Amino acid sequence: MADDFQIGIAGTFDLQNFGDLLFPLVAEAELSKRLGAVKIRPFAYAAKARPEWPFDVASVVDLPDAVADLDAMLIGSGHIVRFDKSIAPNYAPPNADVHHPTGYWLMPALMAQQHGVPVVWNAIGSYGPTPAWAEPLMRTALDESAYIAVRDEDAFNTLAPLVNGKTISRVPDTCFGVSALVDGARRSPEYEAIREALGLDEPYIFVQATNRLEAFGAFMRQHGDRLSVKKAIAVPVGLVLGDSNDQVGRLFDGLMTLSHWPSPVALAELIADARAVVGTSMHMAITALSFGAPVFRPASAWGKYAVLSQHDSVFEFPETGVIDPDWFEACLQRRGPGAKALANKLALERYWDHVASIVKRPRDTSKRANAVLSGFGPRLPFALELQADLERGLEAARADLVGALAGLEGTQQAVEAAQENARALEAAIQEFASRLEAQSLEVGRLNREAEALRARAAADAAYLAAMQKSTSWRVTAPLRWAKSRLDGSVGAESSILKFSAIAEEQLKRDPFDWAFANNVFASSDARALAQSYPHDQFKTVKGYDGEKGYEYEARALIHMGQDEIAFADGLSAQWRRLARDLLSPNYRQAVSSLTGRDLTSAPMEAYVCHFGAGAAGPARGPSREDHDPCILLQRSLGFRGWRVPQHPAFEGHERSSRGSGAHRGQHFDSRAVRHVVARGFEGEAGDGLAPQHERHILSRWRGEYNVAAG
Questions:
Q1: What's the whole-number mean pLDDT along residues 513-522?
Q2: Phi, psi at residue 617, to the nearest 5°?
Q3: C-alpha dist (Å) from residue 274 to 13, 265, 278, 471
Q4: DSSP assignment string, 267-326
Q5: Other C-beta atoms within 10 Å of 138: how many?
Q6: Average pLDDT value for residue range 250-268
Q7: What gap in Å lies between CA 274 and CA 202, rounded to an integer?
Q8: Most buried by CB count within 10 Å: which residue of 171, 197, 376, 561?
């Protein structure tokens, strides 16, 4: 009739789930008692129609054309306020213009408010947090609502920070009023047909056809014949959640099943007349409690089932343990509505009285002018969620680009990743822009941010494209590839030092600790080290140690006790490889094996030296007793020769390339001395360890060893 109250209700009424299908029926029954002729108009993702469905359901895509004719809009009930996507298996919006999951609850509320239709949050539940992008929409929807009612503390705590002081009422789940659907004197024809088909002429136990009932099945197989109630019927309560006869097919002998899924009213009647119910469904339990049937459920964390914990006829049994038959029989006899169930029914009477008074209020037609949101509103969550996703993506892309640019010289893969990020970001921005083309000034701020993001991404992409087209980029491609090999980004990283040449050498004891270690470097590595000898960060070191003066230049390679390369940006790939080798456990193990001392935790430093003409460094004469052992890594770096003091350690290796010289030391070709370990060099001031402009790398373990490599 045209004079009927037209009341919308938004939720998941297109799912085969007992509780979801009860909400519109209970609302219609309660409001009809108070308002007379009432037509409840359910809205969900998918349209449904009789006789395949218990009642007609309209799709939310049709709501913009219907909302202006509504006298009120109810949201829920159920676990409806949520932002995750996993509502039910394969549950999705009817088209890409409907946001998931706000399209079936938040958007109907906002759309109704834009038309001046009062919105009632119908004893709702919630699941999960509210994301930051959705908070402005939630605040608007709650501020403009006529009545906010929640069924549990989780929902209250979810909405409380968003209501700006607006009252939130705590009310029972509306299914505690399910008795409004069941005629106490006359049952439905569908229910009577089921009773006759199954022979339900004596008390029976209603069993939810679900899993997690193995303990109950074992109990019935062993003790079922001892119970005062002999019959049991298994019925799926939520097909969408996986309930089926297959779940209980072999639970115990004599368990009856139905060949079809009954309507929600017939299902409520089956539960109402049961001697007891067994299962996990919350709304099955609420229906049983409303009619005084005891509820048996497997023990678990309460979560949303906390509403059941206040009822003294809800009994838990161990999910995997043994059920006591005497306990079960005693609980089976506790029939009749409890005090809490009766109190819930009275609270719902007051709740529906208040909802009816809201429906009867005159409509605020002044808000019809804002009906532009009817077309735009369903797309607003997309814009806000996409903006949040883009901001997160932009931060990630910016970090990727900064990292790629900083390490551009080292890896081609980083550049390609940055390009891919830029392309993905540009594609996301294009999609974002296309979705916002039809939006008004209300989302202008989002458009400006999108333009800024697009310009930044385009600039980054242009920079990368220009760089890759440059001659220097193409010319240095082989070097980048080689460097990536050395840096370990392509294949496994190789060592420049041959640790075995050090570790496997024999330490000589006479006249002090010393040894030769040959083949420490490969020839190609030696040439590369010589050609890329460092030229930065050198400092002049000069002084007088009481025996002689000295002056040389030194550059840190590894600071004392540190585990990273000093001034790595100024070093070639070969020198960074050498430094990493010195930092590696393999090097410590090799020197420990050679010297017979545990150097695994000793602090170490390494530095590069440049000695001038005749420089010998701090004197290490025989009068000093604190000689640090030193390792001379003297695989040729392209130097012609070395000047060393006369000493048995070098006998047989003297190959003069410049004559005898003015000092006691002789010259020998560095290619003949691959790796020398000595306790110190006994010589007079002026005995040189290096010819003019020769260079050294020194690494030292404090209080333990000095290591010098040429």
A1: 80
A2: 80, 180
A3: 26, 14, 10, 85
A4: HHHHHHT-SEEESS-HHHHHHHHHTT--EEEE----GGGGGGTT-TTEEEE-SSS---HH
A5: 22
A6: 95
A7: 10
A8: 171
